[in-house]
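quick one, two chains, predict together pls
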Amino acid sequence: MKYVDEYRDGTLASRIAATITAEADPARRYSIMEFCGGHTHAICRYGIEDLLPANVDMIHGPGCPVCVLPIGRLDMAIELARRPEVILCAYGDMMRVPGSDRTSLTKARAQGADIRMVYGSADALRLAQENPGREVVFFAIGFETTTPTSAVAIKQAAALGLRNFSVFANHVLTPSAIQTILDSPEVAASGAVRVDAFIGPGHVSTIIGSAPYERFARDYRRPIAVSGFEPLDIMQSILMLVRQVNEGRCEVENQFSRAVTRDGNAKAQALVDEVFELRDSFEWRGLGTIPDSALQIREAFADWDAERRWQLRYTPVADNKVCSCGEILRGAKKPLDCKIFGTVCTPENPMGSCMVSPEGSCAAYYLYGRWRDA
Amino acid sequence: MCLALPARITELHDGDSATVTLGGVRKQVSLALVEGAEVGDYVIVHVGYALSKLDPAEAERTLALLTSLDAGAAA
């Protein structure tokens, strides 16, 4: 496949690894956080950590929308799905995440709720057209990559006058999460979690561009490389960051220039801005309640907002005490530091969200056997 | 769920939609988020929508850089 295969050349990858090893200063440590769960998945799948010298450490970030959604928001979706008139449409990754009392969308469906797994918002819109007597709700989650696709669906529903379609919006913002990590006591004050540099998300950045990260490079003195998702992309980004650290530079570099520009996708940004506005605050699993870190549907599109239509209220729910998802999402722990990883908590029987989505660190570690030799 | 892959546009349809092909798999996707996409262009597809067009010149440049990194290691 063009634009895929050529970035997976194993021989070239080991040579880039040799360059990283040659250039990484043995007296230094390089703690690099890959923000995005897609990168975490690729790093595990291709065994990238095995190619790196011991002093280059990958810290897995919170960029997995399924993982950061708190239990209380999932409970709201389950409550909605149990209404007899509702067809709830969800992304496949959400289906097995445990909510309160270990109920998941899969379990609610087994108990009779009408929950459909969809590929995207367009499928949900089609279901609404095909089921005029039912209320079709799209359970929208995701970072900036996915938000424009929800905006398009809402605009289309408005244009069609489709009144039995609505969106339960849970869209969150990448820069808010990066800022929260940099300001967290673990990173900023105690230094318990060390983050020297970031691999910036690739697909999020196709929409928002690379410019929003410039303030982190400037104000927080952290180098950032926006990266593609193939193994050579990630290796090259790591090399770029090792070089920035060595040279004392703190810049935003764009490794994924074939898809990302500095300013991003203006058309998608305008659509998002037309349909969504900042939410005062939003709770993230692991990161806590963060002001201005998520979006809600604007008043002009209130008729398509499931939260308004059913007057849904958010009730925070504490995570399972033995589950380490919160610390894992902040980079404070790795999956193997969790007591229940791979024993009580497995992809077949997940206790926490990070074991469900393929972009969750725990699921990626488990799936690719990153725990066997540990 | 943030998975997105580059696919080639093979056919344009009415209403901002197109057929794309990826490793022999054909799929209909929305072009509502991109401007001026043509048959033959590669687009990054995510949950049924094209997010951005791939820039062939930049792709070449990245590959050339990867190869030069390689040469650097051999030197």
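The longest strand of chain B covers residues 5-13.
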